Amino acid sequence: CHIKTGSLDANAQTENGDYPFFTCGEEVFKTDTFAFNCNAILLGGNNATGKFKMHLFNGKFNAYQRVYVITPVSTDYFTNWLFYNIKSYLPKFKEASIGSQTRYLKLGMITNMLIPFPPLSEQKLIVEEIEKIFAQIDLLEQNKTDLQTAIKQAKSKILDLAIHGKLVPQDPNDEPASV
What are the backbone dihedrals phi and psi of residue 47, each rounded to the nearest 5 degrees, phi first? Predict the structure, then answer.
């Protein structure tokens, strides 16, 4: 891989910029200039808690000076394959990061990763399966969120009925009401 860092200071963001601006955080900002035009993995190189953020982006963008911009050297290497392999290193990066107030990664920590490279066709099949699983996880998380919202609404409605005297307790010996 080629590994570079961005060169912009964090205050290079602009409200109505034309290009994505990646910093070490989750949020993607905007800026008026671009320094990169490629398919790349962006790895935030510092974070107060050691939880390093990653993005996958294809196109024109710019990056903060502590963001590592990782691009494959060859078309034999699928960028998405690299992304998921590097993502698997995040817990190790957290352990190995240095600094007390802000944790940060050194270039050597990234260049020393060992990533297997099966044939490109295999990389693509594996990534396809990973992305299917992540899509299922996203759907489950959305269902969980929807269910939590429905439960909160039901609790609120029951409380409202109880407060206004419209909730009548049933005698446990009574027959259940038919629906």
Answer: -170, 140
